[in-house]
Amino acid sequence: MARGFGDTAQDRRVRVQGVPVDSFPELAPEVGRGEARRITVVGEDILRRRLREVTEFGTPELAKLIDDMFATNQIADGAGLAANQVDVDLQLFVWDVTDEWGVRHVGHIANPVLDEVPTGERRLIKENEGCLSVPGPYRTVPRLDHAVVRGFDKDGNPLVIEGRGYFARCLQHETDHLHGRLYLDRLSNRERKSALREMETAQDEVFARRAANAARLGK
User: Fold this and answer.
1) Which residues pair with 145 in a beta bridge?
2) 115-138: per-residue pLDDT in tens?
3) Which of 44, 56, 174, 191 is an active site residue?
4) Closest CA to 83 of 177, 169, 172
5) Residue 61 catalytic?
6) Which CATH code, of 3.40.50.12780, 3.60.40.10, 3.10.50.30, 3.90.45.10, is assigned to 13-209?
7) What three-state secondary structure class fits 181?
8) What is the domain partition of the chain in residue ranges?
9) Is the whole-model pTM more than 0.90?
């Protein structure tokens, strides 16, 4: 998911893996360890597949993938990134995003499942949404203002992450990716075509900005 407008790197309250922490660096430690990977773009088959569950936890390979995803997300100015966005067929995503209340959320989750929200408790919010695999355009997308996702951390420990507002949007957006869905699928045909046309004209500038960020971070 592309980072929302107005999300800055100021000192904030921080929750890592859903748990409040007293302090946290501006760049997540995973960013320093990770390497940049190419981000897949709409039209590539892996973005349209339901991904495989993670079955091997606590491995160096999984830890390395998470580090690389954090680094890639940072370079792309992202709020969140799913594994198929770096061409990996696994149900896994990472996030580093600040919500409307100034709380920064940082973490990763494997095999996530969103809790069902009873119809009477559903509250949809329409806000701008973008995607790192659709470089450039933002469009208004309705999402629930509250989300709870359950899964596992890289070591196989159970994990429950709750989000509201923009963070809830991020959790829903990234979970969609793992089922082969893009935010474009939630638009009308007209809006979808408009977004794809805008992407064609904007993507070179987006790619150049990512390259500059990678150079600045030594990635």
Assistant:
1) none
2) 998 888 889 999 999 999 999 999
3) 174
4) 177
5) no
6) 3.90.45.10
7) coil
8) 13-209
9) yes
